[in-house]
Amino acid sequence: MPSVSKRVLTGVGLVVLAAAVLSFPSLAPNPYILSAGIVVLNYAVLSTSWNFVGGFTGYISLGHGALAGLGGYGTALLVTRAGLPSFVALAVSTLLVAALAVPIGLAALRVRGASFVIVSIALVLILLLVFQSWASVTGGSRGLVVPRPFPGLLRPEHHRVFYYLFAALLALALLAWWLIDRSRFGLGLKAIREDEDKAEALGTPTFAYKLIVFVISVGFTALAGGLYALWFGDLDPIFQFSILTGSYLVLMALLGGVRNLFGPFTGAVIVGVALEYFKGRFGNTPLHLVATGLLLGLVVMFMPDGVLPALGGLLRRFRGSRQSSIREVSAAELRDERERAEAKR
Q1: 10-residue block means of pLDDT along the chain (345 residues)?
Q2: CA–CA distances in Å: residue 91 to residues 88, 209, 276
Q3: What whole-number distance in Å separates Cα of residue 91 and Cα of residue 87?
Q4: What is residue 144's three-state secondary structure?
Q5: Who is most buried in 156, 157, 276, 316, counting CB within 10 A?
Q6: Rounded to whole angstroms, how far apart are CA atoms 110 and 56?
């Protein structure tokens, strides 16, 4: 019965969450709020994509923001230079970036811990240097303008269409994470996270598993970056290849809980809304970075496993205390059971 009730509650929660996400465009009071919702959904997709690597293997990558930028620039260049239709360019760019993830993974995944973090930072800096310096192709510091895929739509309708596209992409990423989490492949990835040397000694092909999940993660990241490029329409290498974006993704996933399906989504909603609020309140000043740093510090101190695990722990404590109080009330029944047991002896 408890498992059935838990499944019912989970199903109800999913329906409520889906209804809230899908109804947001109708409830948004103006196009700016709707565009902020798209930004939050983009963060949710990116943090969920990051969680394929960070949540399953424990490898902390700060380079996923740059990989999203690579997907965005790939889509934009295929549209502007090769003349491909927008969504064909998005698909081709995603495949190309995922293919590029193979040699990147072959090099980066041979190191662990802090070394892997440093390698991911180096990737960000290299991509920033290349795309900022190669002005004849990428536009350099001038940026790159991407034609809108739906030129006949007004800006509010344009936002609405892309909001639902990002929501669909988020649902696809969550489904893929859920399937991997319950597969034998996911079990091997979790063994890598807990003790990679022991997992390898027990016969798990650790490097192959890491490479496969890294490519999956990069594919979703590139897809989100390309979709963002088609929506926003203006790319800047300094923004697209910023180390801050990768840091935000890590913060979002850690805040929500990396071992929970909806952890990165929860973190993206909290951090994304906070970032949009502080940017609107303080502009481009560093104050929003200070607020983000304070948020990260609070999470590390009081909720090291994330918001969702912390709430789950509180719920389990509440249930446990309620059950213990029932046992105290039924002390007479326990005494009778003890007496019957002694009589049988």
Answers
A1: 62 86 93 94 97 94 94 96 96 97 95 92 94 91 91 92 97 96 95 93 94 97 97 93 90 89 92 83 72 74 75 69 44 59 62
A2: 5, 24, 29
A3: 6
A4: strand
A5: 276
A6: 17
